[in-house]
Write a structure and sequence with these properties.
Layout: H1 4-21, E1 35-36, E2 46-48, H2 50-58, H3 62-72, E3 79-85, E4 89-94, H4 96-109, E5 123-127, H5 139-157, E6 161-168, H6 173-189, H7 205-218, H8 227-248, E7 255-258, H9 260-264, H10 267-277, E8 281-284, E9 308-311, E10 322-325, H11 334-346, E11 351-357, H12 361-373, E12 381-386, E13 389-393, E14 396-398, H13 410-416, H14 419-427, E15 435-438, H15 439-443, H16 450-470, H17 485-494, H18 497-507, H19 511-530, H20 540-563
Parallel strand pairs: 5-6, 5-11, 6-7, 11-12, 13-15
Antiparallel strand pairs: 1-2, 2-4, 3-4, 8-9, 9-10, 13-14
Helix pairs in contact: 1-3, 2-3, 4-17, 4-20, 5-14, 5-18, 6-7, 6-8, 10-11, 11-12, 16-19, 16-20, 17-19, 18-19, 19-20
The chain binds one RNA strand of 76 nucleotides through helix 2, strand 9, strand 10, helix 12 and strand 15.
Length: 572
RNA sequence: GCGCUCAUAGCUCAGUGGAUAGAGCACCAGUCUUCGGAACUGAUGGUCGGGGGUUCGAAUCCCCCUGGGCGCACCA
């Protein structure tokens, strides 16, 4: 399938070169030529503003430049006409016959529609979710889950070979607290008098369930055990729950990477050593430079703790140096984080995408400094920073807290709505934008909810073919030249999908596909009303051509829904 | 206080320096004697938070201001 913006850009570039060779345009460096569909239909299907950009370097009137470019444009099968307009726009109009012929091409490509080779031979990794298994996934985390998985799908569509990775830590204080919390619940389940601690305790109902199961399995054999066996049991059970939840929304990670393995392999200390060799490490009771307070104020937090090991990240532009190893000899989270990314580089990915919550905004920069300090190319990593989700119910914000157990879990949310609704709502927002998840709206199964609107387009196509089959009608050997203006309008939009995949993948903006899907559905439904295939008044040949069109439309909706990790239902 | 980020229709939000700023929902008015029906059509609705600047051209880039969110640990 052709990427029309690129195709047009090539034509324009060739025209500029030809005009320069003919002496009609002066010599200048040809800029990147941007071609895009204009906002209004009377401005053509694709437009180039390059003549306006060239006015200064060429020292000419933009309209004249555009006229000269248009004169030198080589012919192309997809172009019907070219028009030069007022300030200097070059407007292209697609050839209708060529467009109609795309119906067959769409059907041929099927589920691989607009599969690109942008990342051909390249390996990409997307790290997302990465929640420690201290509880079920809650809604706050799940936005990153949908964005990450959709990002992975788009990269696959762009031609990358993609690995999905989940990074977690089962060795820290959180997991210790989890084990201890389960221990208390276990004793409680055995009928022993227990005191529920005020702090460092996970209050979720799920631990009571685990405790009951544990009693059923082992009886009172663990009465005198410490937190450790409880932690191991809880971790295993928790991961089962988390993976099952993710599977419900079509997410499956290829690799679960345990931070602890970086300690077991020695990678953490190797990383420190390498940073040291490169001159980025020093030991001191205080940072060498403290740009936050000019080194004047004697921070209490920096005193009386002895010597720590510091990362001289200020040498790379950081606001302050960071502690790598505390004075008690244990590393901070920063060091294993850097070691983890070093590990990723060693695995040879060409591209690494990290999906993180906005609360990690500072931390990822420190990791980037670490990567740079190790002599690696930080531009291979791209971070998608996700703003937090606010749950709104009855017009009011619902606060979430993992510890107190009164949060809305992703499972709850799926139960109340559907996997597809959750996927779409959490995807259909720019990552930069705060997301108000209106629970009341999401629960509603009405046309206020775009998910149904989009999926219904696919359902309607499927319905047509159920009915056609019942009537013994076929679209074999259809003459697509009979398709009209409505269908052409839809096909024009379809032709934008390839560019959308490319841009989304390159700019790491998976939300674009969600808006595209809605636009496509908005275009489709009126056509479905107008362009009838099964109505008695429609001549057989025309009916056949229209069926062919709907077959292509169904392919497109299935492709788009699949890219979003959603189902393409046959009926609703 | 410092850093990052956001502010666009009543609400929720799109908008990759280009032409007259868009969509969904809500609201209002209609359509289908319901074919395939979570459907369709139309209307209303905007000083793009405010003020400067760069540019032939700014919602978009730069600076200042106002107001939200998040971060500023030898926690993760």
């Amino acid at each position: 399938m052709k990427l029309l913006p690129k195709e047009h850009a090539t034509l324009v570039e060739q025209a500029i070169r030809a005009a320069q060779a003919a002496g009609e345009l002066p010599a200048f460096d040809i800029p990147a030529i941007e071609i895009r569909p204009p906002k209004r239909a009377d401005q053509g299907d694709y437009a180039a503003a390059v003549a306006l950009q060239l006015a200064k370097p060429a020292g000419m009137n933009p309209f004249d430049i555009a006229t000269i470019i248009a004169k030198h444009l080589p012919p192309a099968d997809f172009v019907a006409s070219v028009e030069v307009v007022k300030p200097g726009f070059i407007n292209f109009r697609l050839n209708d016959d060529w467009l109609r012929a795309q119906v067959e091409q769409i059907i041929v490509e099927g589920e691989a529609l607009f599969q690109l080779d942008l990342g051909a031979g390249k390996r990409a990794q997307v790290e997302f979710v990465s929640a420690n298994p201290t509880g079920p996934l809650h809604v706050g985390r799940s936005r990153g889950a949908m964005v990450g998985d959709t990002m992975a799908r788009l990269l696959e569509a762009a031609g990358y070979s993609v690995e999905r990775e989940y990074y977690f830590n089962n060795a820290g204080k959180q997991m210790h607290d989890l084990g201890n919390s389960l221990r208390i619940r276990y004793l409680e389940a055995l009928g022993q008098p227990v005191q529920i601690p005020e702090t460092d305790f996970y209050q979720g109902e799920y631990l009571k369930d685990f405790a009951r199961d544990l009693v059923a399995e082992k009886g009172d054999a663990l009465v005198n055990a410490d937190w450790q066996p409880f932690k191991e049991y809880a971790e295993k059970r928790m991961f089962d729950v988390i993976r099952a939840t993710l599977r419900r929304v079509n997410i499956e990670h290829d690799i679960f990477f345990n931070e602890n393995s970086l300690y077991e392999s020695g990678a953490v200390w190797d990383t420190l050593e390498e940073l040291q060799e490169r001159g980025y490490v020093y030991r001191a009771a205080k940072p060498e430079t403290d740009t936050t307070n000019g080194g004047e104020a004697d921070d209490e937090e920096n005193t009386g703790k002895g010597e720590a090991t510091w990362f001289r990240s200020t040498a790379l532009g950081d606001a302050k140096d960071r502690v790598l190893v505390k004075s008690d000899g244990s590393p901070t989270y920063t060091l294993p984080d850097i070691a983890y990314h070093l590990n990723k580089y060693k695995r040879g990915f060409d591209l690494m995408v990290n999906v993180l919550g906005a609360d990690h905004g500072t931390q990822y920069k420190v990791v980037a400094y670490g990567v740079k300090a190790l002599g690696l190319d930080p531009s291979k990593i791209h971070v998608i920073l996700i703003q937090l989700v606010r749950m709104i119910r009855d017009g009011k914000e619902v606060r979430m807290s993992t510890r107190r157990g009164d949060y809305d879990t992703l499972d709850d949310l799926i139960d109340q709505t559907s996997p597809d609704v959750v996927r779409y709502i959490l995807l259909a927002r720019s990552p930069d934008s705060h997301l108000n998840f209106d629970l009341d709206l999401a629960v509603k199964q009405s046309n206020e909810n775009p998910v149904y609107y989009i999926q219904n387009a696919h359902v309607r196509c499927a319905g047509i073919f159920r009915e056609a089959e019942a009537r013994g009608l076929s679209d074999d050997g259809a003459d697509v030249s009979l398709l009209g203006a409505d269908e052409l309008r839809f096909l024009r939009k379809v032709m934008e999908l390839g560019d959308l995949i490319e841009v989304s993948a390159q700019t790491f903006e998976p939300h674009r596909i969600a808006f595209y899907a809605l636009e496509l559905a908005t275009l489709f439904h009126p056509i479905y009303d107008n362009v009838r295939a099964l109505h008695g008044d429609v001549p057989p040949e025309l009916a056949k051509a229209r069926l062919r069109f709907y077959r292509a439309a169904q392919v497109v909706f299935r492709r788009v829904l699949t890219l979003m990790g959603m189902s393409a239902p046959e009926r609703m």
